[in-house]
């Protein structure tokens, strides 16, 4: 098997990693790298003593936003096998680091995609648009086959100009409430560096959510340019250029005669890498229509007027208390994702499909371990069957009228569908700030009308869930733990995680 040059390894060592690497070329075992701790646990159960496993994303970290370290690179270059979940679960930086540093000939296995051959069930990622203004995101569409696009490719969408009576700012609110600015017309646009400071990067076939803020009412026009970077060192391929028109606090019908006005629902500014177009694409719930930006006006109505929140994190929007018009992001977290919910393991039967794919992948890498891998997998599949029964029994024991899952992270659709516990969560219009009195009132009514007994929060995400915690306590509703993407010191294995979740749902809702 081809290994990375010694010079690279020496350079990484000199760069100084805090901890020694887990993987090595002096160990007789199969060296396996995974993206998450959940996948690493599954591999250990199948591989047993014949494998050495390490994960890129550590416990308590957010797989959607984790930035790989030199230690991660050092592990990847020694890997004999690599497993990711993908379906855009992991941050693109994790996937690009993994794919770029694997030794020649080492296959990277995407479990969520490959497990469908083992009867894993996938479900669409359903997004509940509960806003009374348009929800405007960004999307990359098309497979780019004629360009040789891979999952490590990038679509660069750059803002090159804005006209209007005030500043226009578009930003993401990341997992823990930190803003990440996509464009800010107040500091200008710099063509000499490729508009680097006003560029959003998206993986192929992905979309993300945005907040759009305007400091003054009036008509704004935003010019966007799209390019395709097939690899990190290839020259970007021009895709197209387009202008969007926003009517902020003014009559949208007076801006462009006979134009289509977009005022509600979910629409994405979409770069189609196959056709070379930038269009406005509505979701299927709203007809799935493609709108020509030249004949379309995006309405930002007077009711979108909000105050800049207090706190240093949002001073880029203006002084606290200053009024701005804003189309909110609607969904917590950075949330770059595709059309399929990637959290398959919340249905234990899908974890069994992962296990079978892991077994066959390890056999291909180490044929001499076939008997051991098969025996380990059979034992673990039996354990998972018992786990599936346990989870179902614990949830079945919750009275049907009490089965309402309220949580701030949309990682539990598979749990809800597989075991019959509907998600009744709410969407905060702007996850970066404290919800309005109306938002709190709607949440309060949800808890009261459904007689919700408990709300569930992931331990590592409590910091961004203060409003849900406060409203729950005001209404004598318990706040309980549930695990989604990551382990911690209390829960250190997949089986323990699913048992904990089943027990928490049972105890808190019964």
Quick synopsis:
Helices cover 26% and strands 24% of the residues. The radius of gyration is 24 Å and the shape is globular.
The order of strands across the largest sheet is 9-6-12-13-18-14
Q: What's the number of structural domains? A: 3
Taking all residues together, what is the mean pLDDT?
Answer: 86
Task: Report the structural category.
Answer: alpha/beta
Radius of gyration: 24 Å
Overview of the molecule:
This protein is α/β, with parallel strands linked by helices and 510 residues long. The chain has three domains: 6-122 and 346-380, Rossmann fold (3-Layer(aba) Sandwich), CATH 3.40.50; 135-327, no CATH class; 397-509, Rossmann fold (3-Layer(aba) Sandwich), CATH 3.40.50.1980. It is built from eleven helices and 22 strands. The protein has helices spanning 6-15, 37-47, 70-76, 92-101, 111-114, 348-365, 370-396, 413-419, 437-449, 466-474, 494-509; strands at residues 30-34, 51-55, 81-84, 108-110, 135-141, 154-163, 168-173, 179-184, 199-202, 207-209, 211-214, 218-229, 237-248, 260-262, 266-272, 277-282, 290-291, 296-300, 305-307, 323-327, 454-457, 478-481. The chain has a six-stranded mixed sheet with strand order 9-6-12-13-18-14, with no helix packed on it. Strands 10-5-15-16-17 form a five-stranded mixed sheet, with no helix packed on it. Strands 8-7-11-20-19 form a five-stranded antiparallel sheet, with no helix packed on it. Strand 1, helix 2 (37-47) and strand 2 form a beta-alpha-beta unit. The protein is globular and about 70 Å long. The N and C termini lie far apart (55 Å). The relative contact order is 0.13. Residues 1-18 and 426-434 have low confidence and may be disordered. Belongs to the bacterial solute-binding protein 9 family. Keywords: Signal, Transport. GO terms for molecular function: metal ion binding.
């Amino acid at each position: 098997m081809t290994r990375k040059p010694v010079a690279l390894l020496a350079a990484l060592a000199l760069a100084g990693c805090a901890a020694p690497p887990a993987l090595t070329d002096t160990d007789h075992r199969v060296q396996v790298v995974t993206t998450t701790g959940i996948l690493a646990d599954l591999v250990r159960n199948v591989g047993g003593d014949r494998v050495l496993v390490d994960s890129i994303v550590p416990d308590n970290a957010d797989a959607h936003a984790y930035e790989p370290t030199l230690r991660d690179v050092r592990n990847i270059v020694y890997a004999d096998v690599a497993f990711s979940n993908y379906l855009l679960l992991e941050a693109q930086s994790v996937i690009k680091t993994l794919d770029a540093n694997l030794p020649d000939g080492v296959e990277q296995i995407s479990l969520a995609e490959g497990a469908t051959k083992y009867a894993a069930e996938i479900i669409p990622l359903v997004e509940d648009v509960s806003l009374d203004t348009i929800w405007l995101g960004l999307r990359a569409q098309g497979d780019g086959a004629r360009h040789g696009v891979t999952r490590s490719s990038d679509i660069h969408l750059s803002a090159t100009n804005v006209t209007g009576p005030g500043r226009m700012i578009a930003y993401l609110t990341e997992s823990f409430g930190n803003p990440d600015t996509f464009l800010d017309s107040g500091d200008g646009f710099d063509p000499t560096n490729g508009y680097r400071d006003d560029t959003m990067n998206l993986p192929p076939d992905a979309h993300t959510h945005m907040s759009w803020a305007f400091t003054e009412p009036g008509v704004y026009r935003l010019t966007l340019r799209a390019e395709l970077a097939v690899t990190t060192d290839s020259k970007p391929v021009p895709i197209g250029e387009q202008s969007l028109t926003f009517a902020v606090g003014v009559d949208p019908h007076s801006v462009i005669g006979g134009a289509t006005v977009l005022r509600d629902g979910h629409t994405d500014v979409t770069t189609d890498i196959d056709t070379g177009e930038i269009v406005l694409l509505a979701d299927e719930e709203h007809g799935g229509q493609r709108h020509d930006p030249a004949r379309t006006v995006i309405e930002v109505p007077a009711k979108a007027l909000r105050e800049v929140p207090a706190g240093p994190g949002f001073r880029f929007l203006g002084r606290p208390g200053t009024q701005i018009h804003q189309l909110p992001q609607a969904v917590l977290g950075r949330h770059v994702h595709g059309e399929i919910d990637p959290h398959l393991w919340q249905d234990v039967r899908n974890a069994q499909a992962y296990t079978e794919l892991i077994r066959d992948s390890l056999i291909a890498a180490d044929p001499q371990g076939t008997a051991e891998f098969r025996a380990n997998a059979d034992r673990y599949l039996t354990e998972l069957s018992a786990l599936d029964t346990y989870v179902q029994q614990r949830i079945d024991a919750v009275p049907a009228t009490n089965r309402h899952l309220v949580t701030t992270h949309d990682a539990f659709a598979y749990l809800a569908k597989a075991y019959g516990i509907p998600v009744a969560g709410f969407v905060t219009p702007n996850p970066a700030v404290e919800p309005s009195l109306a938002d709190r009132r709607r949440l309060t009514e949800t808890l009261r009308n459904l007689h919700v007994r408990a709300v569930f929060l992931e331990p590592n995400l409590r910091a961004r869930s203060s409003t849900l915690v406060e409203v729950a306590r005001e209404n004598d509703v318990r706040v309980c733990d549930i695990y989604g993407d990551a382990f911690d010191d209390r829960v250190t294995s997949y089986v323990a995680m699913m048992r904990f979740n089943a027990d928490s749902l049972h105890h808190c809702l019964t």
